[in-house]
Structure prediction request, 182 residues.
Amino acid sequence: MGLFDNPEERERKEKLRILEDKRMAFLEEATRAGFHPEAMLLAAGEKSELIGLARQGGAYWLVIAPAFGAEGAYRLIKRDALAWDMEKHYVAPEGMGGVMGFGKKGELGIRLVIHMDDEDVVLPLIAGRNSALMCQRARSNPLLDPKRRRGDANVVWDLPPIDKRAMERLKGELEKLLADER
Prediction:
């Protein structure tokens, strides 16, 4: 056993390798399906899974990726129409609102609930709680980058945290993606 040999680190690296293998298999499936969106919203889900929403050719495309270390594969779902609800999310700050470690900051944002046949998919955009990225070009999309990722292979780790300023911009981008649906 070497100086830097750690069983937990080996296990973490193996989970990252498996997750990247799943992403590479997903890219092959997405290419076969003709999935190449110009714009895509990526967000970290409530269970640390990756959720992506895109429009292409009048259809909606939903990508659901497994959480780090979870079973299952990436799923690519195409729908001609989406049934959805947008819920406001607010948690009031407590105590001193997190200043100097006292109390909690509170949360503000929205949750897009997409109603599927067998389940509801929740895409949260909550400032101070989760992360999201609006990718305007395929090159800027970490999920669809065909180059194999090394080290930090979890795409969720590339998503910037949502702050209050980014919240309005992301909400506007989401509304543009959903514009023709209602």
Remarks:
- The two ends are 61 Å apart (CA to CA).
